[in-house]
Each structure stands twice: as C-alpha cells, then as structure tokens.
Design goal:
434 Repressor (Amino-terminal Domain); three-stranded antiparallel beta sheet; two-stranded antiparallel ribbon; elongated
Length: about 140
Amino acid sequence: MPEPLRIVTTTANGTARAQTGASRTVDWLSEHFPDPKDQREYARQKCVEAIGSALERAMETANLNRVGLAAKLGKSKSQVSRILGGAHNMTLYTLGDLLWACGAEVDDLVLSPLGVVQVVSEDATTRVQVDYPSKNAVGGTVL
C-alpha cells in the first residue's frame, strides 16, 4: 500500500521545522487531476487504502492478525486478505462485521477532505513538500 499523504516542512537552508504559525489550505487534487474522472478514480483508490489502513490499525489494537480475524468472522484467511487488500468490493455490512470483530466503531475511522492539505508555516522562506500516492505522479510538489 502506498504511504498516506504526508507533509514535510523545511526551511530555506534545508533544516526541518516544526509546523507552527499561520496556515492555508491547498487543493492539490484539482491541480494534479483536473479531469473529474481521474479525481473520482483517485478518490476510490484513496478510500480503499484508507479503510484498509484503518482496519489494520483496529486489528493491531485488538491484537488480531488476519487468521484471528478470519476465525472470529467465520471466513478464510484468503477472504479476509482479499477484503483488506481491496480486491473484494466490500459492503457496508462487511465493514460493520470487520469493525465488530476488532471491537471498533465506525466513528473510529478518520475522515478528511479529499485532496485538501493544511499547510502551516512561520514565514515565506518555508518550503512545503506534499507527497501523495498517485498513479500519475512521482514524488511531490514543492509549493
């Protein structure tokens, strides 16, 4: 699974800096995916990755591996792997079953605006690099 969106803030001389001070939002999704079809595909992929990651964290918190999760649900390990990997079009009922098995609530899932990043900097010399998973992009964009 690609790494989730992350923001790396560095000063003009290249040293890392804590993110404090004034902020602004950046809509990099529209900039990098101007076609709504591409945005929709990105949103789908991002959803699969985010739900998969959230479920993996819930499993870890519940001290469950895929074998244990499968046993609790009465499914095979391969079925659970397909569901968590996005190869299976999961229903909301299946998501509910997975959350139940992990002792988690749907409220425990973290939702954020798609393609909008909060950029925090203290002064104009700060560079922010946004790295994001994408089928069309490599690396990030310096703003």
